[in-house]
Design goal:
Distance between the termini: 49 Å
Structural class: mainly alpha
Radius of gyration: 21 Å
Number of helices: 12
Shape: elongated
Largest sheet: none
Strand content: under 5%
Helix content: 55-70%
Length: 233
Amino acid sequence: MAQHLRAPRLFSLTLAALLVSLGVICGHTSSAVELPEAETRRAEALVPLLEGSQAFWAIGEFVHLGPPAIPVLVKALNNPSRRVRINAIEVMYLIKDKSAIQSLNALAANPEEIPAMREKALRVAIRLDPTSAMPALQTMAHDPDEAIRHTVISESRAVRDKAVIDLLIALLADDIPSVADGALQRLYGFTGRLVERQDFLQSTKAQRRAWSEDWVQWWDEHRDTFDFVPHRP
């Protein structure tokens, strides 16, 4: 009996992997085709199964449905189950359709959502399209939760937009030294600028403000001619 139950699940996971590979090759950009009404109802019935013992199977079924299932997955982001919401985001990443990006960025910027959900939504949104992430990053950079601000710094590494430099310079004056230090490390990765005697981990708030102003002055002088340093290992 157990073997019969495992076989469909293994088949679904294999199918999901194949479809994901095809999605990478083809490069989904938008869900131009809507699901028929019957398929929409079927997709909606799959949503509760995104938690529990059938979660892997449900994920495979959503991947099989592809980009047209994105509207159903967007609605699932309001599901009361944390696991359903997490897996809905995971399916969006596997389908790799850019029509999900707006909803993911909105979820990431929502202060009423739990941090783990916001962090995952931001990661997936940036992997789908880093050029759309700045509004969410800017909102999250002012979040009172330092873990969210750390996430902003970490995920900004994929964003090549001059606005991200302004965002990181502002975070140099953060109340938490580790956040400020993280912003400094990311700025160094983007700019190659290394300033001696700026130890943010051992700094006072006054020092961080002063050093932030030094970076503001440097940025004002270099903004127009600035190019991001190439990615380094």
